[in-house]
Amino acid sequence: MFDNADRIKAELESLGYGTLVFDSSHGKVVSFLYTVESGSYKNQRIRLGLSFQGSEQYPEYPPHWIHLTPPINDGKGGAVERYVDAKGQEWVTISRPPGDMWDQLPTKHMYAYLNEHLRRFWNNI
After folding, report:
1. Concatenated DSSP letters for 51-76?
2. What is the pLDDT along the chain (125 residues), one digit of tens a residue?
3. Are 102 and 117 in contact (CB under 8 A)?
């Protein structure tokens, strides 16, 4: 049986992303290289990671935490935490749940998360 990280990893890999999984204070993080498609960071490549608030199950519930390296300040405040991973890489973790957008999707998949939620996230930075 897949856990959340395994399922997200498989979906991202089906979209052509290479993934790495590591442990953080927010549980397992599935990370991948991501090219920002909109906003003030447009066309920049960063490593982005996703993890969950608690024991909620994907895909019924989407990832809650967005992890970014190099660290980026989105200017929104709220739950933000900086940390260094086991390889010495500095990250920032930002609490940005998708809210009602996820509930309205006909298909809950990483493709929709990337194209709806992350695009909105980057447009607001």
Report:
1. E-SSS--TTTS---EEEEES----S-
2. 468 999 999 999 999 999 999 999 888 999 999 999 999 999 999 999 999 887 889 999 999 999 999 998 777 766 688 999 989 999 999 988 888 889 998 889 999 999 999 999 999 88
3. yes
Two tokens, residue 116: 């709806």
> H helices then E strands: how many in the chain?
4, 6
SS3 12: helix
Q: Which residues contact 102 (CB under 8 A, 6 or more apart)?
A: 61, 62, 108, 113, 117
